[in-house]
Amino acid sequence: CIPMEEERVGKDQLIFSRSFATPVTTAADMGQVMSVYAQQASARLAKHGLQAKVLTAFAGTSHFNQDNISYPSVCVPLPMPTADPVLLHKAANSLCERIYEGVKYVRAGIMVTDLRPTGNQSPLELFENPHEERGIGQLMESVSKKYGRGSIGLGSAGLRGGPDWSMKRDMLSPRYTTHWDELLLVKAS
């Protein structure tokens, strides 16, 4: 007899991955991508009350371009479980060393694994994260709550204006049930 599996209580991993509107061809642009994605992963971790111990960053070229195939990835074990945007940003940017200049990357992402509830650290993890001590992550979270998503960011991810690589949103479905400004208006005459 096979025992019935209980429902899982928490998440095993969080993935933030997108395709680009225009290909990313430089390590500097990929650094901006990784910075944005790391901060969004940090916000998701905080929202779910989790911390990650491992971060994997990856990128990829188009499946249709058989001439320049490249799928770099890097798996970075973090020194302690964290949701700190500064630490995640630094870990994600280690992917930039593996980016080949001139290759057209059309997709990238970040995956955080070995998730643990916030505040559930083992006694062996004695080292404090200096950024968490200063409250940079909490400051960024409070500014984002007050002024909206994208109002603050680390490095080039904090720049205003949409980058060329940002996701295409031309074919986005209407969100009638969740956004008042997209609600259909019907006029009876």
Walk me through the structure.
The protein has a single domain (13-159), classed as 2-Layer Sandwich (Dna Ligase, domain 1), CATH 3.30.1490. The chain has four helices and five strands, in the order βαββαββαα. It has helices at 27-48, 85-92, 130-134, 136-147, and strands spanning 13-24, 50-61, 73-82, 105-113, 116-117. α1 packs antiparallel against α2 (85-92). The longest helix has 22 residues, at 27-48. The chain starts with 12 loop residues before the first strand and ends in a 42-residue tail after the last helix. The mean pLDDT is 77.
Characteristic key phrases:
Dna Ligase, domain 1, 189 residues, alpha+beta, five-stranded antiparallel β-sheet, 24% strand, 4 helices
Overall mean pLDDT score? 77
Count of alpha/pi helices? 4
Q: Give the distance, in angstroms, between the N- and C-terminal Cα atoms.
A: 67 Å
Give the total of beta strands: 5
- What's the name of the CATH homologous superfamily? DNA polymerase, Y-family, little finger domain
Largest sheet: 5 strands, antiparallel
Global structural class: alpha+beta
What order do the helices and strands follow? EHEEHEEHH
**Which architecture name does CATH use?**
2-Layer Sandwich
The domain tally reads 1
- Which descriptor suits the 3D outline? globular
The CATH topology name reads: Dna Ligase, domain 1
Amount of beta strand: 15-25%
Measured on Cα atoms, how large is the radius of gyration?
19 Å
Q: Helical residue percent?
A: 10-25%
CATH class: Alpha Beta
Query: Which ranges are low-confidence, i.e. pLDDT below 50, for 5 or more consecutive residues?
Result: none
